[in-house]
Amino acid sequence: MASLTIRKLDENVKTYLRLRSAKNRRSVEEEVRVILRELIEGREEPLTPLAAPPDVAAPAPTSQRTSALPEASVTLIIGGGIAAYKSLDLIRRLKERRIEVRCVLTKAAQQFVTSLAVSALSHERVYTDLFDPQSEFDAGHIRLARDCDLIVVAPATADLMAKMAHGHADDLASAILLATNRRILLAPAMNPLMWNNAATRRNVAQLQRDGVVLIGPNSGEMAEAGEAGVGRMSEAIEIAAAAERLLRPPVPRPLAGKRVLITAGPTHEPIDPVRYIANRSSGKQGFAIAAAAQAAGAEVILVSGPVDLDDPDGVTVKHVESARQMLEHVQASLPVDIAIFAAAVADWRVANEGEQKLKKTSAGMPPLQLVENPDILATISKLIGKRPPLVIGFAAETEHLIDNAKSKLQRKGCDWIVANDVSPATGVMGGDRNTVHLISRKNGEIAVDSWPVMTKEQVATELIAHVVKSVADKSLEPAS
Ligand SMILES: Cc1cc2nc3c(=O)[nH]c(=O)nc-3n(C[C@H](O)[C@H](O)[C@H](O)COP(=O)(O)O)c2cc1C
C-alpha cells in the first residue's frame, strides 16, 4: 500500500484534514483512512461534515464507479482530427448501451472539441495532461489504462497510431495505450493519402499483429473540399456497436429456435381434499435442466409438480399437482423439438378419492384402492405425428439401476434414459448432487455412458450439451 505523506498535501487540504480530525477526535492519518473507507463504500458524505475552506479545489465529479459498478466501462481517447466532433456522439451512443465512458483528449484534440463539452456529455472529468498533479498523485494514467474494460481511440490519428506502433509514451494518450492490459479498439480517421501512406500501412499492420482491433475507416467524402476515398472515421453508432461486441461478446445459443419441454418435481395424488400421496422428488434436477436449455437459447416450457423452487428466468412454467394434470399440460405444449421427462410421476393414484375429508371411524381404516396413472413418457414416446424428435426419460431406481433403465428404454419407446440411483444412501432425492448414466441406442445396441458424481447443475449442462450435439448431428426438423 502506498503511504501518504501528509506534509506534501496542499495547505488548504491539510487545514481541512486537521479541522475534521480534531472534530472527530482522530489522528489526521486515521481521518484519511476513514475518508478513503467512506469513499470506497460509496457514501457521499466524506467532505460534507465541515464546510471546506473556500479555496479547496473542488473534488473531481464522482462517478458511479464507487457505489454501483457499471456493466462495462471504456476509456475513450480522442485524437486530434476533424472527426473528433463525432466522438461527442460516440460518448452518447456508448452511454445509451450502459457503458460508462471516461475521456482523454490529446493536446491536438482540444483544438477540435472542448473538455467542457466532453465532460458535460460523459458526466466525468476529462483527462488531458500526463503531468497533472491532481490525477497523478496515484498514477492516474495507469488507472485510466487499466480501470476500464476497453480502450477506444476515436479518432485514431495517423500520429497516434504511429506512436502506438513504436511504443511511444510522451503524452497521456500514448502513455495509457502503452500501459494498458485491456483490449484496444481504434477508429482511424485521416485523409486518404495519409491512410495509404506506406508508413501508415506499416503501422496499421504492426498494430493488427499486436492484437489491436480496428473499425473502419470507411470510404467517402473528406472534410477537405473535393477529396474522397478511404479515411472517413466510422460512424459513432458503428464504433459503439464494435465496442459492445468486444465488451459483451454474443453468448452461443445453440438451441435457438428449438422448443424444449421439460417436466420436473413430484406429483401429488389426492386421497381426499386435504391428503395426498407424494414422493421425495425436489424438482432440482428438472429445474436445472430447464435453466440450462434456456441458457442454450431454447424456448423452454417447464411443467412442474409441487416444488419449493423459484421459477427459472425466461422459462414458461406450468404448475400442476397430479399426474393427469401433468399429462394434460404436456400434451397442450406439443409440438416440441425435445422433450425431457425428469418428473417423478406417481405410478398410481387413489381410485376412490374422497370428496370430503375422510373421517376416522370405528369401522377401521378407509380402504384405499389404487389405479395406474397415465404413463407420460410412454404416451409421448409412442405418439404418431406429434412425437418430439428427441424424447428423454429419467429412471429413478433403487436397485438394478442399469438393467432396469435399459428395459425402460425399450418398454417406453423413448430415445434416451437418464438413470439415477435414488436409494436413500445416495442422497439424490432432494439433494444437490447426482450420479447418472445416459442410456441410448447406438448402431442397434444399447450404450451406457456413466458420468461421474456432479452437481445437478453440472448434470443439466452436460445433458444439454449432449442434446445440442444430437440436434447438430440429426438436424432435428423444427417443431411445427
Ligand atoms: C485542421 C486539421 C485537421 C486534421 N485532421 C486530421 C485527421 O483527420 N487525421 C489525422 O490523423 N490527423 C489530422 N490532423 C493532424 C493532427 O492533428 C496532428 O498529426 C496531431 O499531431 C495529432 O495529434 P494527436 O495524435 O496527439 O491527437 C489534422 C490537423 C489539422 C490542423
From TrEMBL:
It catalyses: N-[(R)-4-phosphopantothenoyl]-L-cysteine + H(+) = (R)-4'-phosphopantetheine + CO2; (R)-4'-phosphopantothenate + L-cysteine + CTP = N-[(R)-4-phosphopantothenoyl]-L-cysteine + CMP + diphosphate + H(+). Its EC number is 4.1.1.36, 6.3.2.5. The keyword Nucleotide-binding does not apply. Pfam families: DFP (PF04127), FitA-like_RHH (PF22513), Flavoprotein (PF02441). Residues 2-38 form the Antitoxin FitA-like ribbon-helix-helix domain. It comes from the Bacteria. One of its GO terms (biological process) is pantothenate catabolic process. Keywords: Decarboxylase, Flavoprotein, FMN, Ligase, Lyase, Magnesium, Metal-binding, Multifunctional enzyme. Catalyzes two steps in the biosynthesis of coenzyme A. In the first step cysteine is conjugated to 4'-phosphopantothenate to form 4-phosphopantothenoylcysteine, in the latter compound is decarboxylated to form 4'-phosphopantotheine. Catalyzes two sequential steps in the biosynthesis of coenzyme A. In the first step cysteine is conjugated to 4'-phosphopantothenate to form 4-phosphopantothenoylcysteine. In the second step the latter compound is decarboxylated to form 4'-phosphopantotheine. In the C-terminal section; belongs to the PPC synthetase family. This is Coenzyme A biosynthesis bifunctional protein CoaBC. The gene is coaBC.
